[in-house]
Design a protein that fits this description.
451 residues; alpha/beta; Rossmann fold; Helicase, Ruva Protein, domain 3; 5-stranded parallel β-sheet; two-stranded antiparallel ribbon; 13% strand
């Protein structure tokens, strides 16, 4: 949250090509949240987030911008499709469920943060338990012996020897010398029915916690290596050290103040005057969305959550409709609108080369595991970009996702034969690309199915 708008845009540039207007808008929206946290309480309540609507065809980076932004800022983030709320009957799925999902996401973030704080103590406790499993502590007193009797010399020597052995085991654990040693872990399992939590409108009730109190527990033992057991025990000890109530309260606060909900395909719930039937459901979804985006209080199993300061980012292609065809009240809740551009051939070239996790780098890393050096030459990348652009123009424009199909088709043979190739260098140049893509690209009927 300390990042400036320029720094946010710079970070987004590492993963997403172009779309500068959208990047600037989300960067300013995030910085405004940082600013809001620093104004006085009276003014803080008045400042609401400026929700954003991204307009552009599929595959140009709308979802990726929002997802990377959330990762960058450590904010709770969920992506929902507006169409899923029209699927069943009149209302479809409960629209309020998006807020409950956001809180669950926030809960995971807070829990991970709290576990990190107590990790040192959790590791110490886990190692103590591992030592007890490898060499159980001696019983200091005997059942038929008077407690006031002093221990004999033999017992003292035995106790000291046992203590030294335990310290040796501790040192060996610290040095990683016992990672493959087997230990027996006793765990409790419980059959908890999950179906009731899926009843629409009942998500706020914690049925799982209720059944945990009444359902019988079954103890079972399993053999694990010390390495595996340590992770299991650290997780157990971390949960013991963390306050469940504190985590839940912090998660609700985090979701309320920093949460981001990305509503995709919002253009699909535009109700057209020319069509009936499903449009009734679409209009209903808009009405259900309105109070959540405006700001309301939703009941969850972790408490009441206010959506007044949640940032909503909506996105849609708007091929057959316009943003102005949404309900006026809903339109007004997305004051910032940015239009994302169609991808050009040059954009495809940049997408294949510039991002830190570009497709070309991914395939190079994958085939390097088979001792194959994959080299993408400049003319090969430009030819790939040209094919992707042309196929998008001839058929359905799916944006950058077209590169996935083109790359898979290009490297299918090499990926199949790679394990049988001892090692080698494969250069992907223009001739290599044309040899494998040209025939499919020219055949219009085949093109529709394969590319």
């Amino acid at each position: 949250m300390e990042l400036t708008p320029k720094e946010i845009v710079s970070e987004l540039d590492k993963h997403i090509v172009g779309q500068d207007a959208a990047k600037r808008s989300v960067a300013v929206a995030v910085r405004n949240r940082w600013r809001r946290q620093r104004v006085d309480e009276a003014m803080k309540k008045e400042i609401s987030p400026k929700n954003i609507m991204m307009i552009g065809p599929t595959g140009v980076g709308k979802t990726e911008i929002a997802r990377r932004l959330a990762t960058l800022t450590g904010a709770p983030f969920i992506k929902v499709e507006a169409t899923k709320y029209t699927e069943v009957g009149y209302y479809g799925r409960d629209v309020e469920s998006m807020v409950r999902e956001l809180v669950e996401n926030a809960l995971g973030i807070v829990r991970s943060s709290e576990r990190e704080k107590v990790k040192e103590e959790a590791v110490r406790r886990a190692n103590d338990r591992l030592i007890d499993m490898l060499l159980p502590p001696q019983n200091a007193s005997k059942a038929n012996e008077d407690d006031e009797d002093e221990p004999s010399d033999e017992e003292l020597v035995g106790s000291l020897k046992h203590a030294r052995n335990r310290e040796k085991i501790r040192k060996m654990l610290d040095d990683g010398l016992m990672e493959e040693r087997s230990v027996s872990i006793v765990s409790e399992t419980q059959a908890v029915p999950m179906v009731m939590s899926n009843i629409p409108g009942m998500e706020e009730f914690d049925f799982q916690e209720m059944f945990e109190k009444i359902a019988p527990k079954h103890r079972s033992s399993r053999e694990l290596t010390v390495r595996e057991a340590r992770e299991f025990l650290i997780e157990q000890e971390s949960d013991k050290l963390i306050s469940k109530e504190k985590v839940q309260s912090a998660a609700v606060e985090l979701a309320e103040n920093l949460g981001i909900i990305f509503i995709d395909e919002i253009d699909k719930i535009v109700a057209s005057e020319k069509q009936g039937g499903a449009d009734v459901s679409r209009q209903g979804v808009q009405r259900d969305l309105l109070p959540i985006v405006e700001g309301t209080t939703i009941q969850t199993k972790y408490g009441y959550v206010k959506t007044d300061h949640v940032l909503f980012i909506a996105a849609g292609a708007f091929h057959r409709s316009k943003p102005s065809e949404l309900m006026p009240e809903l339109q007004g809740r997305f004051p910032i609108r940015v239009e994302l551009n169609d991808l050009t051939k040059d954009d495809f070239v940049r997408i294949l080369t510039e991002p830190s996790g570009s497709l070309t780098k991914q395939y190079q890393a994958l085939l390097e595991t088979e001792n194959i050096e994959l080299v993408f030459e400049r003319d090969g990348i430009e030819t790939l970009a040209e094919y992707a652009f042309e196929v998008n123009q001839k058929t359905q424009n799916i944006g950058a996702r077209r590169l996935y199909t083109i790359m898979e088709r290009l490297l299918e043979e090499l990926s199949f034969d790679a394990p049988d190739m001892s090692q080698g260098r494969v250069a992907i140049n223009a001739a290599y690309v044309r040899e494998r893509i040209d025939e499919v690209s020219k055949d219009e009927d085949l093109n529709r199915f394969i590319l």
